[in-house]
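Exercise 7. Predict the joint structure of the components listed below.
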Amino acid sequence: DTEVTQTPKHLVMGMTNKKSLKCEQHMGHRAMYWYKQKAKKPPELMFVYSYEKLSINESVPSRFSPECPNSSLLNLHLHALQPEDSALYLCASSQSTGVVTGELFFGEGSRLTVL
Amino acid sequence: GENVEQHPSTLSVQEGDSAVIKCTYSDSASNYFPWYKQELGKGPQLIIDIRSNVGEKKDQRIAVTLNKTAKHFSLHITETQPEDSAVYFCAASRPPWGATNKLIFGTGTLLAVQP
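Solution:
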């Protein structure tokens, strides 16, 4: 199973709402990622969890709050978002060991629209 | 930090022709170079990757070449088919730490294969 599963596929929210994006993988990967992708642009790294601990935060605004409840799950909590936060949010996972870089597997993404 | 440039931004070929996409990177410590294909409304899918101890890798109609001295790598698709139409991203990363692989993406190439 080389799947990263993301829910929901589509989400529309108002600027005062609180919502969450969810991601799950069962490949035994110990690194999980959140990326943001705007139209016609490459994915932009937001957060990385390594062994369930936050290891990278790319200066993301606090209205985005990541959570890694266990080694298979990754959440992104959304609160008080702005219309410019509308984008495709991608989850990914990988497993690197020692000096050997592991492949990054992406989910299909959650399309977020902020009204 | 690492910077990855990708050319061309758009590429149109006739079915059956070859397509070549080129990337250059700046960080001489980078040692892993994956290529992703992203179809409309989907997440990026890894199609091939190459590590710095290898100069060329082939998988059916897809090949990647790496020139470490010049710091550039290329994707070659032969006998293109309409289903090859998508956005292609190159990426580069340094050796991992822990389980983490921090990819730096190129800007993407929109490939259109005309039937």
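Discussion. The CA atoms of residues 4 and 25 of chain B lie 5 Å apart.
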